[in-house]
C-alpha cells in the first residue's frame, strides 16, 4: 500500500471488512510515522474498537487518518465520524464494562487508555465524532 | 468470507490464525471449532496467535468464548504465541481473558493439555465408586 503521508487517508466504514481495512490503514500509517511497535499495537487496537463502534452503534460512517506534527513530535491522528443517534449518556458510555450492545463495554473506555489524546463530540443531530492522537516518543 | 483452518493432530485441534480476521470470520471459527470438538472427541484445542499483531475486545471475547465452549465439551483450550506488544495492549485495554490458559508456544501448549487431561483421568479414577469397592 503506497501511502502519501502528506495527505489524510480516508476509509469508509460500512461493513466488517471495512473495520479490517481501517486496521490495515492505521497500521501502515503508524509504521510509516515510526511509532514504536507497542505504540503501533495500541493505536491499531484502539482504531479497531472505535471503527467497530462507528459501524455497530453509528450505523456506519468514515475514518480519516492524518500524520500530525506539533513542532516537537510527530504523531498519528484518527477521526471516526458517523451520523448515527449519538451517545445519550457520555459519562456512562465511557465507563469500563458498560455496554448498550452485546460487547464487553471496553471499546470507548479502553481505547481512551491506549491513545495520548481523546476527544469526543456527540449529539442526536450530528452523530458522533471521535478524534484520537498518538504521539511518537 | 475467509475461513480459518482447523487441523487435527492426535488428540488436539490446532488453529493457527494467519489472517486479520473480520468479526464474522471470528464468529464462524467459534462455531466450526465447537463442531470439530464434538466430531473428533479431541480433548485439547490450541489457538496459535503468533501471527496476530493485535487482539481487540472482539477477538479477546471470542477466545474466552471458545475456552468456555470447549470446557463444556470436555476439551481444554490453550492460547499460544501472544506477542509482547499484544499482551501489553490487552492489559491496558482492560481485557482479562477470563478462563483462558496461555502458553508461550505450541509445544508448551501441548504439554499443558496433556498434563490437564492426565490429571482429569486420575481424578475420574479416584472418584469411581466401583474402583473404591474393588479395593480390598
Automatic annotation (TrEMBL), chain B:
SUPFAM superfamilies: SpoIIaa-like. InterPro entries: Bact_StressResp_Reg (IPR051932), STAS_dom (IPR002645), STAS_dom_sf (IPR036513). It comes from the Bacteria. Residues 2-113 form the STAS domain. This is Anti-anti-sigma factor.
